């Protein structure tokens, strides 16, 4: 969408509308050919204003919803104002002018404008519905991506926990082996300690026996005569 083109069409419509809204009052004060001429001018400007509104609607296609929705509402209000001007003109030309060709054309044009207004309202609703569906689809896609990423993260975490469990199992096995080795070491140390005590006792007995023998030899040699 070209915002510059939209603004240009917006200015064109305001200019046409400013011209149109003066015509019903002028028709009220005019008669004969001048009145028919004003009605023809109104028809021409009315058609041009409709074309400008259609161009503005086309420029809104592809615009962000934050801009398109309020502008679509504004265009519907512009159409309502145009229809009001058209009805004002019909009421002004209804007395003493209802059998003239201009009135018939205004009636047909009014019906066409009402149908066009309804079509534009339906189109705006369809655009809003399409925008809502697009937003919902994008939201679903984002949710699916998040779910896939979450699933992948969960898989990675499970694999990492499995690896950590294997490491803990290996550590536990090593601790069990270490405990068994410590138990064997304690048994060996206790056996060595018992042997050491036994050796000490045997050594003490031998020393005592040697001292007794030595005492007996000294006694027999020096004191017994």
Tally of DSSP β-strands: 0
> Distance between the terminal alpha carbons, to the nearest Å?
145 Å
Q: Estimate the strand proportion.
A: under 5%
Structural class label: mainly alpha
Largest sheet: none
- Gyration radius, to the nearest Å? 55 Å
State the helical fraction: over 70%
| Structure annotation, total helices | 5
Coarse shape? rod-shaped
Which segments are poorly predicted (pLDDT under 50) over 5 or more consecutive residues?
A: 95-110
How confident overall, as mean pLDDT? 79
**SSE order in H/E notation?**
HHHHH
Oligomer: single chain
Write the layout of secondary structure elements.
Elements: H1 3-20, H2 23-29, H3 32-60, H4 65-93, H5 101-223
Q: What does this protein look like?
A:
The N and C termini lie far apart (145 Å). The model is unreliable at 95-110 (pLDDT under 50). The protein is rod-shaped and about 185 Å long. The protein is mostly helical. It has helices at residues 3-20, 23-29, 32-60, 65-93, 101-223.
Any descriptors?
single chain; 225 residues; mainly alpha; 5 helices; 92% helix; rod-shaped
What is the compact description of this entry?
92% of the residues lie in helices and 0% in strands. By secondary structure, it is an all-alpha fold.
């Amino acid at each position: 969408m070209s915002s510059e083109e939209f603004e240009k069409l917006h200015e064109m419509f305001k200019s046409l509308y400013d011209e149109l809204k003066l015509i019903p009052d002028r028709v009220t004060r005019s008669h004969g050919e001048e009145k028919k001429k004003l009605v023809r001018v109104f028809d021409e400007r009315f058609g041009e204003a409709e074309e400008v509104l259609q161009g503005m609607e086309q420029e809104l296609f592809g615009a962000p919803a934050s801009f398109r929705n309020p502008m679509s509402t504004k265009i519907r209000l512009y159409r309502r104002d145009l229809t009001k001007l058209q009805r004002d003109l019909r009421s002004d030309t209804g007395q003493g002018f209802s059998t003239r060709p201009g009135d018939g054309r205004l009636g047909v044009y009014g019906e066409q404008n009402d149908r066009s207004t309804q079509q534009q309202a339906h189109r705006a609703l369809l655009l809003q519905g399409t925008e809502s569906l697009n937003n919902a689809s994008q939201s679903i896609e984002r949710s699916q991506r998040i779910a896939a990423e979450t699933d992948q993260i969960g898989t990675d975490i499970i694999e990492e926990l499995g690896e950590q469990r294997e490491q803990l199992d290996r550590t536990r096995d090593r601790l069990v082996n270490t405990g068994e080795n410590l138990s064997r070491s304690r048994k060996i140390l206790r056996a060595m300690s018992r042997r050491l005590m036994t050796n000490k006792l045997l050594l003490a007995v031998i020393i005592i026996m040697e001292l007794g023998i030595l005492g007996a030899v000294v006694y027999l040699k020096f004191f017994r005569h």
